[in-house]
Design a protein that fits this description.
heterodimer, A: 325 residues, alpha/beta, Rossmann fold, five-stranded parallel β-sheet, 11 helices, 7 strands, 10% strand, B: 326 residues, 2 domains, seven-stranded mixed β-sheet, five-stranded mixed β-sheet, 13 helices, 14 strands, oxidoreductase (chain A), DH_E1 (chain A), Alpha-ketoacid_DH_E1_comp (chain A), 2-oxoisovalerate dehydrogenase subunit alpha (chain A), thiamine pyrophosphate (chain A)
Amino acid sequence: MQKTAINYEKMYELLILARKIDERFWQLNRAGEAPFVISGKGHEGFQVALAQLLNQKIDWMAPYYRDLPLVLGFGETPKSVFLNLLSKADDTNSGGRQMAFHWGNQANHILSHSSPVTTQFLHACGVALALKKQGQPGIVVTTVGDGSTSQGDFHEALNFASVFNLPVLFIIENNHIAMSVAQEDQYKQKDFSGFGQAYQIKYAKIDGTNVMSSYQDLQKIIEEMRAEPQPVLVEADVVRLTAHSSDDDGSYLNEQERNYQENKDPVTIFQQELLAQQLLSQEKMTEIEEQISDLIDEVTEEALAAADPAADTLEQFVYEEGEGK
Amino acid sequence: MKLNMIDAIHLGLQEELVRDEKIYLIGEDIGRKGGAFGATKGLQEQFGADRVMDAPLAESGIVGMALGSAMAGMRPVCEIQFADFIFPAFNQIYSEVSKLRYRTNNDFEAPMVIRAPYGGGIQGGLYHSQSIESFFAHMPGLRVVIPSGPRDAKALLKTAIRSNDPVLFLEHKKAYRSLVEVVGDAEECFPIDQAIMKKQGTDCLIITYGLFVSKAVKVAEKLAEEGYSVGVLDLVSIYPLDQATILDAAKASGKVLLLSEGNKEGNVISEVAAVLAEEILFELDAPIKRLAAPDVPAVPNAKTLEDAYLHFSETLEEETRALILF
């Protein structure tokens, strides 16, 4: 496969876009405009890299609620995620029906997901199965948090993908805390390599806070998957730089957990590497940041002014309507 | 062609597999073995292991993976080996399958069927006899369809498979081999959202579904010899209910007896009773009568206990007569 040059600027733009949108979301929540925020802050590093490595024309994605950067890199626009946050009529994910951060957009090859966690792991298997049956290329990426590794669907999905040899890239975004439950109260393994072994699928652990190393690691994995379709389990080590959600204060975190999280901010890490390796200048970074800030101001205004779903649409689309019925 | 219900379902699946390459079957033991009851016997040989897939023993996995494939253009038909085993997939059915169209504002749909044998009277004990339909009759977005005989089974299954909405298709396992009739051709498709008047009657109406439809028709014929006119309405669509047909049929007879094999409290027939009470109470000539199973957890295995569980259905004739004479 031909390797294209790594576009650091594009990745930096996506990283800053996701971060600044996230920060604006919290402001809107505190201002009483957005009922709920659940953040990917600290999870951005590998997501930004992954988005560059996928081909939206052939690949699919079954994300979860901490994947704002990933969906922004996979066709969702700043406007669409603001409309989603505010449950507006033109929200392309659900028309304001789902809580915010519940993605899903067929045109973008992003599967719809619910709130009970890990169900999307099996849906990803299904899409991969469909691609196989239809003789189409492409891989399916699906993500969960570390808490989801205790769910039955997690294990059923890994086993099904293994048995049917499905090209699914399963990613555990391990921020080492499942809402409030500490890692040692969730599982006893050092890492999730044992699951790879148990289900006879490849396993890799990556530093998900580091855009550059994530890019290198994921590029190799995805190239292998394209050359020889197969499931892979990736554990992306990330941090959660916010509370679980806007309805949580994170006060249960101890000092050690708090320090660990705060010292691994993907934005800082990427900025330092870009400057150290002279891949992007400070001036360029500042320019990007300013442009994105302006864009976000503009989009915020547009989204706040957008129409809410009409009350009389409540009963629409329970079943197929119109001719095909 | 005269077939029993399991052979009619087999033929329906076979015809649909021929018709549309997007359709595939998946379930436990449905490939090499051809299914616990033989509904898919020989189909893997005919269509290959890609289209008739043996799945690992995990119901949530079967339904969840099927849903994913449906989101990407396939039309899966899942088999749950016994309805009693469907509960590991409850979350996938309730949270995912039934809500997909609604939650995506019509962007995605789930054209899939989940088949499962249900019902007792075959000494299947607590976990091979259950009537589970009431649990699934509370999920807007999902259809629950139960056929009452071979011809309906084939013609309803085809419509379910061709529907762009998800359908839970429940087959009474005692009906598989006990009922035999002439079935329709490959294009005979019956509506899956309409109740069927199996017999007209003016003195009393029995409303039921599944295996009990044939029982109700026999009772109606017997009572006809006594000069009574008893109608039988087959619900077919357990959810959502075909309220218009139910109300029209009930008005024509003035008296209604509801019959179901599930536990009485919280049964789907109670919803039918509620609809009747709400809409046409003053057009009825007698209180609505419900005949259903006692409120014990499930059908016990010992023949004496199983008979005791199902005893209510043996009282159908006398209860119908009593209602007529009310």
